[in-house]
Amino acid sequence: MKHLSIFRTVLLSVFGALAISGVLIFALAVGGNQESPVGPVSIWGTLDAKAFAAAIEKAAGADARFAQVTYVEKDPTTYEADITNALANGGGPDLFLLRQDYIMRDKGKVIPVKPESLSSTQFKATFIDAANTFDTAVGALGYPLFVDPLILYWNRDLLASGGFAKPPAYWEELSDMTQKLTKRSDSGTILKSTIALGEYTNVTNAKSILSVRILQEGGSITERDQDGRLTPAFATGTSTESALSFYTQFANPANNAGYTWNRSLPDARTAFAAGDTALYIGYVSEAPLIAQMNPNLSFAVAPLPQIRGRDRVVNTAHVYALAVSRAGENQDGAKVVAPLFASPSIAKDIGDVLGIPSALRDVLSEPAEGNGALFNKEAIIARSWLDPDPEKTSAIFRAMIERVTSGAMRLSDAIQRADQEMAQVIGQ
């Protein structure tokens, strides 16, 4: 740099800083002629319509390109089928919200963002690590907007009754808690549980919880081999065995110290909302629903527990990105509007109304009020894995857990079987 002119040095420094912050990603989209029409652009998603409508209305006041943008809230239970059927019939939205675990299933429905418009370096500098699964060799499969991390919900009254002033920061603390908080009848029936872990069918977020424990152990569920092919990783190393052993112990009646859950109990979220479970692991977005289920419940939120003594902290999350549909009628307009939504101001507006963190690093770096700081931190440490098919892999997780809790298989055998089943889903 000594031989460069002062002008060139300053110019390169400025552009380098912009690249690091990710500002260049949106320079062309947000700049330019804001009066140029983009036509009607329809968006489908499962998140709250009021939040999008308010943000679109606010954005349209400053940028005419939002004037004909509309959002339709779809039923989460039929969303995938609605998207598939609409695209098969040559219709459907111009943009749709794509969740990170549906990338492999839905990538054929998406027009990727060209690398020259959004490079891998720019992507990683702009969006959180949990969004990296959207960054592919053919380009980004969407613009990540929101992240919904796991958190720990805790019942103030139940913890206080056991002499605990705060929830556990580490998983290892659960052993002492289960001994003091779990209440059983003389016949052994669980009356009050400490936490919903160990089973699958009635543990609301079982797959996510076991996944994050595997990630915290340093393992993976799937990974790319040296040729870039997706492969199963359940049986790689000892991470899965350690995670599965920890998880299933809470449903083992022979474990007097830790037994606190079984499949005869209500689903985990219902049990927590009813005041019958002291701790509940759920997503940030579940908070309003829990409060609605029981307005009198005295509960608070805390970070997801970590493994004591580990240098890194890890969480997992659902990440939502705005993807351009291959069957949309206004693809040109969609390509203009999508990056506008991923600008910090608009993404923050929608995220604030939804009550979940932004997927943009710039937004997460801003000061937050109330529980926002906690949510943002959990979003920053979140990681995700490439899921070949969410429904099929959920069945694999369920079978792996229940083979252990039923005594049908040893840990190592259940994991080997899950690895084989994952390979079949991937198509190996």
From TrEMBL:
**A Pfam family for this UniProt protein?**
SBP_bac_1
Cite the InterPro entries for this sequence: Bact_solute-bd_prot1, SBP
Q: Which domain of life is it from?
A: Bacteria
What is the official name of this protein in its record? Answer: ABC transporter substrate-binding protein
- PANTHER family listed in its UniProt record: ARABINOSE-BINDING PROTEIN-RELATED, DIACETYLCHITOBIOSE BINDING PROTEIN DASA
Recite the lineage of the species.
Bacteria, Candidatus Kaiseribacteriota
